[in-house]
Design a protein that fits this description.
Two copies of one chain form a homodimer. In chain A, 70% of the residues lie in helices and 1% in strands. Chain A is mainly alpha-helical. In chain A, helix 4 runs antiparallel to helix 6 and helix 7 runs antiparallel to helix 9. Chain A is globular, with a radius of gyration of 18 Å.
Amino acid sequence: MAKAPDFQTWTGLVRARVEEALVRALPAAGIAPERLHAAMRYATLEGGKRVRPLLAFAAGELAAAAPERLDVVAASIELIHAYSLAHDDLPCMDDDALRRGKPSVHVEFDQATALLAGDALQSLAFQLLSDTRLSESVEAQLEMVNTLAHAAGSRGMAGGQAADLASTGKTLALPELEFMHIHKTGALIRAAVALGASCGNLDAGERERLDRYGKCVGLAFQVVDDLLDAEASTATLGKTAGKDAKQGKSTYVSVLGAARAKAFAEELRADCRAALSPFGERAIRLKELADFIVLRKF
Amino acid sequence: MAKAPDFQTWTGLVRARVEEALVRALPAAGIAPERLHAAMRYATLEGGKRVRPLLAFAAGELAAAAPERLDVVAASIELIHAYSLAHDDLPCMDDDALRRGKPSVHVEFDQATALLAGDALQSLAFQLLSDTRLSESVEAQLEMVNTLAHAAGSRGMAGGQAADLASTGKTLALPELEFMHIHKTGALIRAAVALGASCGNLDAGERERLDRYGKCVGLAFQVVDDLLDAEASTATLGKTAGKDAKQGKSTYVSVLGAARAKAFAEELRADCRAALSPFGERAIRLKELADFIVLRKF
């Protein structure tokens, strides 16, 4: 058996696969309505760390899932993520002109196109998830649709975004902050792990352990995001830095202070490892991803 | 056997069922995030003609589907419709302050909340469609998810909306106008008929005939909408009248003139009847709905 590639090689391979899957999934720029399709492609392709797709692949590989299925699941989740960014950057929301080092969708196109592109990206995610067979049982695949819809909706990502807006200018207590982040970022990250795993074969106990990992890694991602927003530069991030403080938002840094926020991220990383430990070497990529998420600089 | 209720009684019964199904499907106003859930309910409940739910029920009754399944399907489609209205009324789109005789969602709440409510309503539609068993086979249900996603997306409703925006201030030729309307309004109406039918049992030929009906009735709906926008009053419509002309939009009235637009709507009504004729009395509600759609005054 060939030696497994190192983490960096692996992430490069997965990112390239997912980029191809997204290119295949998105309507070609020449198909009408052309401007909408151009905006959908602009919002999605050539950018981002692809954290959610990496998590879906890592969980799927642990579950011995076919890579062709993981392509589809990873692309679906990334479409939801891309839609949320296009909408979040709109003037009536975070009003941000820069994303992934490029002008935001509404700056490059216009607000109406950014709105519709986001709407259509969400639809496309569910279309993709119901286009081809992705799981051993059709029941399980319908459950995958349900999981993604729940994660994206008002008690998932969109709800977290609403809580975020409502909190602007207020000082949140830690439980409120955690509620917001578990929904805003955590729900979709958790779904990425669950959906990747659903493409393969795991028993209920194994799925539950992975779900615990998904919850911890999602929260860790947001704690580190708060730290980076406070400490890194716009050039490094490829999005506007220092935005949280400027907008008077409560973050893990504003509520806990940077030192305790860092310690909390480390705690969550340890929780991730604990959830994975029964899997041994099979969970290597998930472990590496938790390290990457907590130790990243962008 | 009890005599079937007349059309008006039937629409009243179906609308009441669908309202209850929507109330059940939407998160209660007391669940966090409360403002978002209030906006979702405001956008959806107590308003609208419920044309798409009526079509889903009519097609489903023809296919001998269980009403409990039709409740869910009709609610899913209406959630997609309600989301599209909340987004269409935003200032960056049609900028309309009045909808269903009430202030638009962004006027009653705010733009960010209207945006997120629309986003979350779309997610909820797919959640609902994957929550409970809706068809004899799970494969058919997954296909229903696919049909709705396609109808809502960039080559369906969202794409038609983009074409509409792109056409503002231009004079469209009839084929371009038809492309726009078939997508903007037609796709979701066609899906309503298809999804209702999928809850029951029909053979491929019957489903194809219903699909022909769905296409014609969807286009007829839009032709009449154009006529009403040009001729009815704001008070009667419950939304701003005369908007198309003011915004320099091509409509069936501006391209064909009112008389030929009316004749075209009548032609489509005849096409609807022709598609239904092999079903005989089983298609009574669909036939009545085509009449209602073409002859309505609001």
